[in-house]
Amino acid sequence: MIDTKKAYLEKMQGKLKEWQADIDKLKAKATQAKADLKIELANAISEAEKRCHDLEGKMQEIDQAEENTWEKLKGGVQSAWDQVEGTFKNLADKFK
Fold first, then answer.
1. 5-94, what's its fold?
2. Separation of alpha carbons 51 and 79, rounded Å
């Protein structure tokens, strides 16, 4: 378990950057896809971007929280994290 707010946010930020790079790769793939796959990829990319944006909002809440209360917000961040992770797992399975 990560004990400090700074370490927790750094870990989350690192993974979020990886996911954003994955989104960029999907966008590149979408430009070369056939029409039906292009639509499906566009929808998947939109969902991934929305979930990443939600996670960033939750991370901001933690960043702005007091040192003695930030851990109470971790549940919301973990839920958003799980949603992003699930979205990318589905994308990886679907668009290999």
1. Four Helix Bundle (Hemerythrin (Met), subunit A) (1.20.120)
2. 11
Alpha-carbon span 85 to 90, nearest angstrom: 9
Q: What's the pTM?
A: 0.75
pLDDT at 1 over 70: no
The Cβ of residue 47 has, within 10 Å, a number of other Cβ atoms equal to: 15
Is residue 95 helix, strand or coil?
A: coil
Instruction: Tell me what the pLDDT averaged over the chain comes to.
Output: 85
**Quick one: pLDDT at residue 2?**
56
Does the pLDDT at position 14 exceed 60?
yes
Question: What does the alpha-carbon distance between residue 82 and residue 96 come to, in Å, rounded to a whole number?
Answer: 21
CA distance 4 to 42: 37
